[in-house]
Amino acid sequence: MDSAAITASLKKNFALDPQTAKVLVVGLGDTGISVAHYLQGLGFKFAIIDSRAQPPMMDEFSQQMPDTPVFTGGFDEAAFKVATHLVVSPGVSLNEQAIVKAIANGSKIVSDIDLFACSVDVPIVAISGSNGKSTVTTMLGEMAKAAGVEVGVGGNLGTPALDLLALNAQLYVLELSSFQLERTSALNAAAATVLNVSADHLDRHVDLAEYAREKQRVFRGDGVMIINVDDPVVDAMRDDCMDAGGRAPKVGALGDAGAIADDSRKTFTFSINNKADFHLAYQGDTEYLMHNESRLMPLAELPLEGRHNAANALAALALGVAVGLEEQAMCNALRKFKGLSHRMQRVAEIRGVTWVNDSKATNIGACVAALQGYARKVILIAGGDAKGADMNELTSAIKEKAKSVVLMGKDAGLIKQALNGCVPVYSASNMAEAVQIAAGLADAGESVLLSPACASLDQYKNYQDRGEKFTKAVLALVDRTASPKAPTLIPPSMVII
């Protein structure tokens, strides 16, 4: 789309006019900077505000846009009072007092995803969910490339959405978080999915029901809905998105929670447990990924650990079919897909023990999915910042799938309390200790799984840093001269009684 068409779309959807609007960009991170470049390119008047005294990207931004007003060190309400529109970065809560007041006084909320949606006239695929969305987003991007389609991949994953506009792609694949969706109202994706819903970000959302409602907003519009029938919360979204009149209920100041649609809206289902449009099925001794009655590829050819990755592959296939990608090209991409760093990533096999880095499992659902992918019990390393989640939801999966658990981090005690002695539990103060303890517990043929079920910021820069520390500690085992079964690796003081 050219700038005139984009401006017309922004005026129509948000009364966002370069001649009259005064935009305040809240948050000077990757998203905020991408918004600033976008607004500058269209000739908007804007300023930036950040609660931090010295945002990490401040110096770089000052060099790029020296004439842009930037307010730091708090949310000065005076800056909000003059703003006609607010573009609030996902990392900033809409419950901030200055933001609440500005909305009450008439400022309009516009997200970077709204701006993106008003700026493209090619299909957008929108992917959300508690777990697996980065994997599915990346999978689908690789499928599009294999099918010969110019694709832009980003959003919550990697490149900010607005920075993708420079690609002039034929298809955009966006990973979207609940924080992005809660402030987005203009997105009408050609195909969209909520992969699953489990407790996450309850430090920002009131409860699981509100979190699910924000996820459900990805289904706005009239595009193809991709539904996981194995997840009852997601399965119910099919009906919740459409009332008898074909219109979605209103939720809060930002608009409808679901889709404006009717009963004829196209839907694809996927399942690893039941018959669906995209499912698993045995034919003879071979289990296949299926599209209705058609075999797509043997499951054994999917080079990823864990049965939950079969669900991810089925979801990606359904999304690809929804936007017209050729099936065998997609399957060829799946055969070559090696997965994401820090997501069920095999680090090493040492003395018969397989070490797996799933540091990206920052919530309970991700950890449960990882555990359920194993036929044999594992040694689990978990813990960190639980983000307000109920750790009791881990108990059943750990009891079934874990031989023992090594805990670390801020909320290790909450997990210990939830497990209530159902498996042996050990404590560690850091990752190196956790790896040493796990090495002493694991027998040849078993796996040690880092799948924390918690965020990482209590001890690490991010989940990537946590995963790298794990990898470093595991690889250090290769140089050890002592047996990994030496009792000294598990000091009695580390055992939680």
Q: Considering DSSP H and I runs of 4 or more, what fraction of the residues is helical?
A: 25-40%
What is the overall number of helices?
A: 17
Low-confidence stretches: 243-262, 481-497
**Measured distance between first and last alpha carbons:** 64 Å
Can you list the strand order of the major beta sheet?
A: 7-8-6-9-10-11
The secondary-structure class comes to alpha/beta
Q: And the CATH topology of the largest domain? A: UDP-N-acetylmuramoyl-L-alanine:D-glutamate ligase
Number of domains: 3
Radius of gyration: 24 Å
- Let me know the largest β-sheet: 6 strands, parallel
What is the general shape? globular
State the CATH class of the largest domain.
Alpha Beta
In terms of DSSP E residues, the strand content is 15-25%
The CATH superfamily of the largest domain appears as: Mur-like, catalytic domain
Total count of strands: 20
Structural summary, described in words:
- The chain has 497 residues and is α/β, with parallel strands linked by helices.
- The protein folds into 3 domains: 22-110, Rossmann fold; 115-336, UDP-N-acetylmuramoyl-L-alanine:D-glutamate ligase (3-Layer(aba) Sandwich); 345-494, Alpha-Beta Complex (Protein-Tyrosine Phosphatase, Chain A), CATH 3.90.190.
- Helix content is 32%, strand content 19%.
- The chain is built from 17 helices and 20 strands.
- The chain has helices at residues 3-14, 30-42, 58-64, 77-81, 97-104, 112-117, 133-146, 178-181, 208-216, 232-240, 308-322, 327-336, 364-372, 395-401, 412-419, 431-441, 463-476; strands at 22-26, 45-50, 70-72, 85-88, 108-109, 124-128, 151-155, 171-175, 191-194, 224-228, 267-270, 278-283, 286-291, 294-298, 345-350, 353-357, 378-382, 402-407, 425-427, 447-450.
- It has a 6-stranded parallel beta sheet with strand order 7-8-6-9-10-11, sandwiched between helices.
- Helix 7 packs across helix 11 (308-322) and helix 11 packs antiparallel against helix 12 (327-336).
- The longest helix has 15 residues, at 308-322.
- It is globular and about 70 Å long.
- The model is unreliable at 243-262 and 481-497 (pLDDT under 50).
